[in-house]
Write a structure and sequence with these properties.
about 250 residues, alpha/beta, Rossmann fold, DNA polymerase, domain 1, 2 domains, six-stranded mixed beta sheet, 12 helices, 6 strands, about 45% helix
Amino acid sequence: MSSPGQRRPRIYADTREEASGIPKLLESMNVIVIRKQLPEGDYLVPPDVAFERKSAADFISSLFDGRLFDQASRIRGTYSEVLYIIEGDFFRELRFWSDKERQLIGALASLVTRYDAKILWSEGPRQTAEYLASIASKHGNRGASGPVVINKKPSMQSLREWQLYVVESFPGIGAKTAQRILEKFGSLEAFFNASLAELAAVEGVGEAKATRIKELLKAPFKSGVKRTTLDEFYDRPAGRPKDEER
């Protein structure tokens, strides 16, 4: 995949992906594969393009049990770009959910618009490997050749890095947007106290992300964990408390 004079593309592969055979396929395509347990996603193209690989059946079921939206929020909060690779015949699987087709199409639209995710359709592991190798090759000459630090907390001595780290932890906020936020508001306190309109006005945030940030800041902490199902996701518009639905 690389021509003479070019750096060999690198990909970080989650150790749990070894059984898929994709890491070995990538190596046969002249890609350097670094096996590591990733905090989110199955593959990472440096510096911060994350890939999640799912079978068509699992992708659809994860829409209904709430896993997909939870996962998309976590991945988007960690990496700047998120791509889902869906393996298998999605439209064949869709026939088993014909009574929910409209909701599924709506969920796909939400994945793209709310979480800024991209979707690639793959026939199987080999085509998935070809996607990864091609994208890694295009990104390979953009960044430095040093190791990528995955989910590392900044040192206590660096106040600036801690400030960026805190802002980047919000769903949908990457490194560039975090810097714009801090440059606009000047401090974490001012960021936390900003109005919805002020947050939405920051380049890279917008109304949808601003709404999610304010919801997160105002939400009371609950010790129990409950996933949002697809039906709940559509029944409750963003920004509307549950007690207003009754």
